[in-house]
């Protein structure tokens, strides 16, 4: 089994954080997305979308999409459960996971593509799209802050996949994308400091 990854990329990091929380070790092979190694024919055979992460099983089966890879490991190693166990927990965690993906990761990603000097040579950047992304990301940060006012973790009182994805997303936002969140979002800051202090943050 091999996990194709890249150190600074937020989507593979979700999987690495998830694996660290589960205590699972998987051999990792880096694919340099900055030089387009992921777009070479050999890699496109593993994932026709060309993105990382990809998990290649010993029989050659390839699974892409970070959350699908996490679900695979959850099924293999149910403890500790990070996707919930009861129908209500599973739905609640999935609801928050999708909220993080749609309201935070996708909006931060828009700022990365359209507003970062680091990607200026790669994309035809549209300033209005970056501004819209920033505005929507601020709403996403507030959504998380409100939720974290009454909950220790994103989906309630235990660590879940929603925390792994939000952690990788917030590190990406405040790191590579150089975004900040408002000082008034004290609950988000409390949670961000907490997940950064967990051993899985080293993943
Ligand atoms: N929805 C996908 C997104 C994967 C993705 O966008 N990966 C980025 C790295 S964070 C990538 O491979 N970018 C390079 C490219 O697409 O060429 C997932 O969750 O795995």
Structural class label: alpha+beta
The proportion of residues forming helix, as a percent range, comes to 40-55%
Shape field: globular
**What about the largest sheet?**
4 strands, mixed
Indicate the CATH topology of the largest domain: Glutathione S-transferase Yfyf (Class Pi), Chain A, domain 2
Q: State the low-pLDDT regions, or none.
A: none
State the CATH architecture of the largest domain. Up-down Bundle
Compile the SSE list and pairings.
Layout: E1 2-5, H1 10-22, E2 28-30, H2 41-46, E3 54-56, E4 62-64, H3 66-76, H4 87-115, H5 127-149, H6 161-174, H7 186-197
Parallel strand pairs: 1-2
Antiparallel strand pairs: 1-3, 3-4
Helix pairs in contact: 1-3, 1-6, 4-5, 4-6, 5-7
This protein binds glutathione (GSH).
Glutathione binds next to helix 1.
Keywords, separated by commas or semicolons:
Glutaredoxin, Glutathione S-transferase Yfyf (Class Pi), Chain A, domain 2, four-stranded mixed sheet, 4 strands, 6% strand, binds glutathione
Write up this protein.
It is a single chain. The chain has 203 residues and is an alpha+beta fold. It folds into 2 domains: 2-76, Glutaredoxin, CATH 3.40.30; 87-202, Glutathione S-transferase Yfyf (Class Pi), Chain A, domain 2 (Up-down Bundle), CATH 1.20.1050. Helices cover 53% and strands 6% of the residues. It is built from 7 helices and 4 strands; from the N terminus they run βαβαββααααα. It has helices spanning 10-22, 41-46, 66-76, 87-115, 127-149, 161-174, 186-197; strands spanning 2-5, 28-30, 54-56, 62-64. It has a 4-stranded mixed sheet with strand order 2-1-3-4, with helices on one face. Strand 3 and strand 4 (62-64) form a beta hairpin. Helix 1 (10-22) runs parallel beside helix 3, helix 4 (87-115) runs antiparallel to helix 5 and helix 5 (127-149) crosses helix 7 (186-197). The protein starts with a strand and ends in a 6-residue tail after the last helix.
């Amino acid at each position: 089994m091999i996990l194709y990854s890249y150190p600074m990329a937020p989507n593979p990091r979700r999987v690495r954080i998830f694996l660290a929380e589960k205590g699972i070790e998987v051999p990792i092979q880096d694919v340099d997305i900055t030089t387009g190694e992921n777009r070479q024919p050999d890699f496109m055979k593993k994932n026709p979308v060309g993105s990382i992460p990809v998990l290649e099983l010993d029989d050659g089966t390839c699974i892409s999409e970070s959350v699908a890879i996490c679900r695979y490991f959850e099924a293999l190693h149910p403890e500790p459960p990070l996707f919930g166990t009861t129908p209500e927990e599973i739905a609640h965690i999935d609801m928050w996971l999708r909220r993080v993906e749609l309201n935070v990761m996708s909006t931060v990603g828009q700022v990365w593509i359209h507003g970062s000097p680091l990607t200026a040579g790669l994309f035809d950047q549209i300033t209005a799209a970056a501004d819209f992304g920033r505005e929507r990301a601020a709403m996403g940060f507030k959504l998380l802050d409100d939720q974290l006012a009454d909950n220790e973790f994103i989906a309630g009182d235990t660590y879940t996949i929603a925390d792994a994805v939000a952690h990788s997303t917030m590190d990406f936002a405040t790191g590579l994308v150089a975004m900040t969140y408002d000082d008034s979002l004290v609950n988000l800051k409390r949670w961000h400091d907490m997940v950064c202090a967990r051993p899985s943050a080293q993943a």
